[in-house]
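Long-time lurker, first post. I've been practising inverse folding by hand and with some scripts of my own, and I keep getting stuck on stretches where the structure tokens seem ambiguous. Below is the full token string for one chain I'm working on. Before anyone asks, I'm not after the true native sequence, just a reasonable design that respects the backbone. If someone could post their per-position residues I'd love to compare against what I wrote down in my notebook.
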């Protein structure tokens, strides 16, 4: 998540800077229809396309739905207000939990108190979707999609247990000092997400990485070892996939290995989004080596766009689901990318049950400065 405002040159990257007029991460204004690159790329809540694993009849008695959703929607639907001026760029005044309580520290991505409310059975389409996703999990490591040179999508790569542990860890870090806040610019414009950083702080206003977060002087915590391990393994596995077991294949197609020292953690609520941008605020060395950005998706799915230019019309689209890992390095290191929308009510039921995660999507992007 860098480079949203940068118009300037980083020096020594002339060929790349042809692509470098990334705008701020702001309002998403689709101009037209967007190409769909994968058959599965649609943000549909009621997936009627595949065989039902549990029939309507057999489940009819069990399915009672909607009350939890309604209750949560009524308290979590506060859209970000762009017109509101903020005195400090990191606006913590919006750090309410889903029950509208103000927290003294960071925004809480988990639903406090909801687990004590009577739980209703999830609707049929959700049960079946979860079963299908569990089946995908058993394909772990095999379901890798080559999107373009340097860019791969690893479907369902993160195990269920790891997803639970990542959500819980981010929740704890997010409510601590230096945790989630809603970033914005001095103009008053705010991003449509909550964010915090690990390792180093990335500041949207200056597009710079610093040791301390400017608005509250907090120092980002370290990236947990467990996260580091998943990142390294994902790069290794994607290279094995690219090589296809053939050691003699072109080295240039491989994704450079990387030990991240920065992780940007984003939480999108149901109206969250992120404009097309390039990640290019990392060091010259990191960009020259084309070290990859590795992205984890958890919770609700997202419509993710990527392309050679900043044009939405020319962009490709994929759906990022809970457990997916997306890698863009090598020739795709400076790809434009962004999130057009969050697909409501698509998070795995079991993940919600295990974590009490609020409706929305958690995204972690790892980079090397
Ligand atoms: O949420 C995502 O999938 C992308 C996030 C991103 O591009 C960033 O943090 O720079
Ligand atoms: Fe980004």
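-- Answer (accepted) --
I ran through it position by position. Result:
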């Amino acid at each position: 998540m860098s480079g949203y405002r940068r118009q300037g040159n980083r020096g020594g990257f002339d060929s790349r800077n042809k692509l470098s007029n990334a705008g701020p991460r702001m309002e998403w204004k689709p101009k037209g229809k967007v190409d769909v690159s994968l058959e599965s790329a649609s943000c549909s809540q009621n997936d009627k396309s595949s065989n039902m694993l549990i029939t309507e009849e057999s489940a009819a008695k069990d399915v009672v739905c909607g009350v939890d959703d309604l209750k949560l929607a009524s308290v979590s639907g506060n859209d970000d207000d762009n017109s509101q001026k903020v005195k400090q760029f990191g606006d913590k005044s919006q750090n309410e939990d889903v029950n509208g309580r103000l927290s003294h520290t960071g925004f809480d991505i988990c639903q406090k108190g909801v687990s004590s409310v009577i739980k209703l059975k999830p609707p049929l389409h959700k049960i079946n979707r979860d079963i299908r996703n569990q089946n995908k999990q058993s394909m772990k490591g095999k379901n890798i999609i080559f999107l373009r040179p340097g860019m791969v999508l690893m479907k369902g790569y993160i195990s269920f247990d790891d997803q639970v542990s990542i959500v819980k860890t981010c929740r704890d870090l997010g409510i601590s000092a230096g945790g989630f806040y809603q970033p914005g610019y001095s103009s008053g414009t705010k991003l449509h997400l909550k964010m915090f950083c690990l390792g180093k702080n990335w500041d949207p206003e200056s597009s710079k990485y610093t040791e301390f977060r400017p608005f509250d002087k907090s120092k980002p915590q370290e990236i947990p070892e467990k996260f580091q391990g998943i990142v390294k393994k994902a790069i290794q596995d994607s290279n094995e996939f690219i090589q296809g077991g053939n050691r003699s294949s072109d080295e240039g197609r491989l994704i450079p290995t990387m030990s991240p020292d920065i992780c940007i953690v984003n939480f999108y609520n149901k109206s969250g989004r992120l404009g097309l941008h390039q990640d290019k605020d990392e060091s010259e060395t990191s960009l020259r080596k084309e070290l990859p950005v590795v992205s984890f998706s958890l919770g609700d799915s997202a419509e993710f766009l990527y392309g050679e230019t900043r044009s939405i019309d020319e962009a490709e689209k994929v759906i990022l689901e809970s457990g997916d890992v997306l890698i863009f390095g090598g020739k795709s290191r400076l790809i434009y990318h962004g999130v057009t929308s969050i697909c409501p009510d698509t998070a795995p039921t079991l993940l919600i049950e295990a974590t009490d995660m609020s409706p929305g999507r958690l995204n972690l992007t790892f980079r090397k400065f």
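A couple of notes from the structure itself: The chain has eight helices and 15 strands. The pocket of 2-oxoglutaric acid (ligand 1) is lined by residues 1, 264, 266, 274, 279, 295, 304, 320, 337, 339, 363, 365 (CB under 6 Å). Happy to go over any region you disagree with.
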